[in-house]
TrEMBL record:
GO terms for molecular function: orotidine-5'-phosphate decarboxylase activity. One of its GO terms (biological process) is 'de novo' pyrimidine nucleobase biosynthetic process. Gene3D superfamilies: Aldolase class I. This is Orotidine 5'-phosphate decarboxylase. It comes from Phreatobacter cathodiphilus. GO terms for cellular component: cytosol. Substrate binds at residues 17, 39, 66-75, 121, 183, 192, 212-213.
Length: 243
């Protein structure tokens, strides 16, 4: 029996890392129905992006606030409660045990999913050492992911280079693996150090792909988004054939 059909658009979050609300509104209008999921981070979030995310969620778009919360327990819990009231669907926190527990408390019975950021995809082993970590990317990501799953976090933010290993060590399918650092073949990696193509990310087990500049900085953002959605669709079809 073949696997159920999956809308490839559901796999793609477009990162609205734009300097102004007006530019974000124009891009969403240009992308139209090609894109159904959006990520809003610091840059837009601190420039009227929270209210815009609320509007997009109310219009039927799936919204991911990438705020990477990390603070004392009470502050994190109250921040998550506030984000849950916006109607957003995803929110990131840093993968520290106390922070993750507070976020799960703040989420409560809402539909908001909490994603734990393990090691940033702009980091490598040298960056981890400079930050004072005793481990490497290869040891820190699975350790943090296992903690997150045990605490009840809904998803893990990691590189697509790490997804297969996370499933292999027992991270359950209900925990979504969300992967930034995605670049189409031949695209500039920018400030990312652990980069994977959309096709490879899907084949490696990524549940959601976060892509920004290859779409937002493209001469034709809608065409760039369609090309990526088509690549995702092709990878999903190949996986279904092999089920």
């Amino acid at each position: 029996m073949s696997a159920p059909a999956t809308d490839p658009r559901d796999k793609l979050f477009v990162a609205l890392d734009l300097p102004s609300l007006g530019e974000a509104e124009r891009l969403v209008s240009v992308l139209g129905d090609t894109v159904t999921h959006y990520k809003i981070g610091y840059r837009l979030g601190y420039s009227d992006g929270i209210g815009f995310g609320r509007e997009l969620a109310a219009s039927g778009k799936t919204i991911f606030f990438d705020l990477k919360l990390h603070d004392i327990d009470n502050t994190v819990r109250e921040g998550v409660e506030a984000i849950a009231r916006t109607g957003a669907h995803y929110l990131t926190v840093h993968a520290y045990p106390q922070t993750m527990r507070a976020a799960v408390q703040g989420r409560g019975g809402s539909a908001l999913k909490i994603l734990a950021v393990t090691i940033l995809t702009s980091w490598n082993d040298i960056d981890c050492a400079e930050a004072g970590y005793a481990g490497t990317v290869a040891t820190l990501v699975p350790a943090k992911a296992q903690q997150a799953a045990a605490i009840g976090i809904d998803g893990i933010v990691c590189s697509a280079q790490e997804t297969a290993n996370l499933r292999a060590i027992g991270i359950p399918p209900k925990v979504e693996l969300v992967t930034p650092g995605i670049r189409p073949a031949g695209a500039d990696g920018g400030d990312q150090k652990r980069v994977v193509t959309p096709e490879a990310a899907i084949r490696g087990g990524a549940d959601r792909l976060v892509i920004g500049r290859p779409i937002t900085a493209a001469a034709d953002p809608a065409a760039a988004a369609r090309e990526i959605v088509n690549a995702i669709d092709g990878a999903l079809r190949s996986l279904r054939v092999n089920v």
